UniProtKB/TrEMBL annotation:
Associated pathway: Nucleotide-sugar biosynthesis; UDP-alpha-D-glucuronate biosynthesis; UDP-alpha-D-glucuronate from UDP-alpha-D-glucose: step 1/1
EC top class, as a word: oxidoreductase
Source organism of this protein record: Microthyrium microscopicum
Name the UniProt record assigns to this protein: UDP-glucose 6-dehydrogenase
Molecular function via GO: NAD binding; UDP-glucose 6-dehydrogenase activity
Ranges annotated as spanning the membrane: none
A Gene Ontology cellular-component term: nucleus
Length: 510
């Protein structure tokens, strides 16, 4: 087999960037270039402040991009890569003709969101970014380049890619593989370094098998052979949708039980433990909460529902749609609870929301559950909804809530958690950031006795004016940049700092 020497990853996002970096790390002889049409994103990947936050990512990128020999190991147990001996082999670019033209193998890692208009709006996948990338491949790629679907796509997309390529280059051949990505945001580097499995779907032809072997050889640099699974293309494409649908289904299952618990006096955490210790069921994804958010679960289940409907399988579609319905129901229950605890009105009240990211350890604002919570709270016309998230960029939050009625006047985004919570009547933690964790039970979350007890610090302090309030000192950017919010936040998260809850308690409205 001819080894792959030049890889192009189209799409410098949450999947393309980390995947390319880990691929480059473990294949020092392979040049990996990440191509994106957004020059700002590319510039950011080349700077000291990467466009996405992922634990461990900055180290891998520095090592592979700059050949930074000061970093000798990404993870103590990782591998025998001799970092000091090699130069950087990871590149970022907007130059499609060169990157695509030189590649032996191209990963398609572009976004495939849910369509929001036209046929299938609200459930089908929008493949326009993918189509545009494939048209670039048709223009610039050399004959025989292996095309790999890394993006999550509906079952049958490989045929669509093949048809586009055939229509432009009918005499040439481009093997198409499916190689979906199973990483989770917040643990992307860990997942890429130690995946449960890598799935490669190929056609049962000689060219298909050869292409699959060439791709598998790249992964074999760090992943044991028995974790590299080979299937046909359609199984591989569908497996990704099914994996996400089943994970989301567990969340909806336990959340539906949480509603039952609230009516019966059972404790959903005890139930999750009792049920999860059965090793046929397992303990993961059984934490009741606000539901699932993020750019993948909702979109991928919707895509599955759409595929089932298109294939005239209404019962299958209804089954998976129920998983989405429970997710919405759970959020509505949450905001109903806030409003009812505040005498059924938010008028004249400030509500603080801690966390905007859909899960901890990511700054991704897309499809955040917080948006639905904010929309629902805004209907009650509070004086203010204050948001603090230790990682989400302000413009990302603004973009997600811009369409909400009243957001412009009533929603305020803070970079200081204590200013965000100060004077609020309710405080909701929407993301389980370690920064929000308290070592002891929170005095502010206990129901206050009607009469303040003088010795209880939180009670007396809650009523005290904010005399001693001083803004927190954020740690300095590790790269020494002046007034660098992203660097300061990164430092805040990396140095394990925790929120000072007694300070929050002092500043809440009684
Ligand atoms: P993203 O939006 O973060 O990144 C996509 C990038 O592709 C963007 O930077 C965009 O500018 C670029 N792009 C779009 N069209 C292009 C074109 N024609 N040429 C060059 N660049 C182009 O998306 P993401 O979160 O990385 O997701 C990518 C795919 O991976 C999606 O299909 C998603 O469902 C799937 N996936 C995502 C995750 C996740 O956790 N985010 C996990 C597994 C799989």
């Amino acid at each position: 087999d001819i080894p792959v020497r030049n890889v192009c990853v189209i799409g410098a996002g949450y999947v393309g960037g980390p995947t390319a970096a880990v691929l480059a790390l473990h294949n020092p002889m392979v040049k990996v270039t990440v191509l994106d049409r957004d020059p700002k994103r590319i510039a950011s990947w080349e700077s000291n402040h990467l466009p996405i936050h992922e634990p461990g990512l900055a180290e891998v990128v520095r090592l592979t991009r700059d050949g930074a020999n000061s970093v000798t190991s990404v993870e103590p147990e990782s591998d025998g890569i001799d970092a000091a001996a090699r130069q950087g082999n990871l590149f970022f670019s907007v130059d499609s003709p060169t990157c695509i033209g030189h590649a032996d193998l191209i990963f398609l890692a572009v976004n495939t969101p849910t369509k929001y208009s036209g046929r299938g709006a609200g459930s089908a996948s929008d493949l326009s970014a993918l189509e545009s990338a494939v048209r670039d491949i048709a223009k610039f790629a050399k004959n025989g380049t292996v095309i790999v679907e890394k993006s999550t796509v509906p079952c049958g997309t490989a045929r669509l890619i093949s048809n586009i390529l055939l229509s432009v280059r009918p005499e040439e051949s481009f093997p198409i593989l499916s190689n979906p990505e199973f990483l989770a945001e917040g643990s992307a580097i860990k997942n890429l370094l130690h995946p449960d499995r890598v799935l490669i779907g190929s056609t049962p032809s000689v060219a298909g098998r050869l292409a699959a072997r060439r791709l598998a050889a790249l992964y074999a640099s760090w992943i044991p052979g028995d974790r590299i699974l080979h299937t046909n293309v359609w199984s591989s494409e569908l497996s990704k949708l099914v994996a996400n649908a089943m994970l989301a289904q567990r969340i909806s299952s336990i959340n539906s039980i949480s509603a039952l618990c609230e009516r019966t006096g059972a404790d959903v955490r005890e139930i999750a433990k009792a049920v999860g210790t059965d090793d046929r069921i397992g303990a993961k994804f059984l934490k009741a909460g606000l539901g699932f958010g993020g750019s993948c679960f909702r979109k991928d289940i919707s895509s599955l529902v759409y595929i089932a409907e298109s294939l005239n399988l209404p019962d299958v579609a209804a089954y998976w749609r129920a998983v989405l319905n429970i997710n919405e129901y759970q959020r509505q229950r949450f905001t109903d609870m806030i409003v009812s605890r505040l005498s059924n009105t938010l008028n004249g009240k400030k509500i603080a929301l801690l966390g905007f990211a859909y899960k901890k350890d990511t700054g991704d604002t897309r499809e955040s559950l917080a948006v639905d919570v904010i929309a629902s709270l805004l209907e009650e016309r509070p004086t203010e909804i204050a948001i603090f998230d230790p990682c989400c960029p302000k413009d990302g939050i603004e973009r997600e809530i811009a369409h909400l009625d009243g957001a412009k006047d009533r929603v305020k985004i803070y970079s200081d958690p204590y200013l965000a919570t100060s004077g609020s009547s309710a405080l909701a933690i929407l993301t389980e950031w370690d920064f929000f964790k308290a070592d002891r039970p929170l005095p502010v979350l206990r129901k206050m006795p009607p009469k303040a007890e003088p010795q209880a610090q939180a009670t007396t302090a809650a009523e005290a004016p904010l005399r001693d309030f001083t803004p927190p000192v954020l740690p300095a950017c590790p790269d020494g940049c002046q007034n660098c919010v992203s660097g300061q936040r990164q430092a805040l998260l990396e140095n394990g700092q925790r929120m000072d809850w007694s300070r929050v308690a002092r500043s809440l409205r009684g």
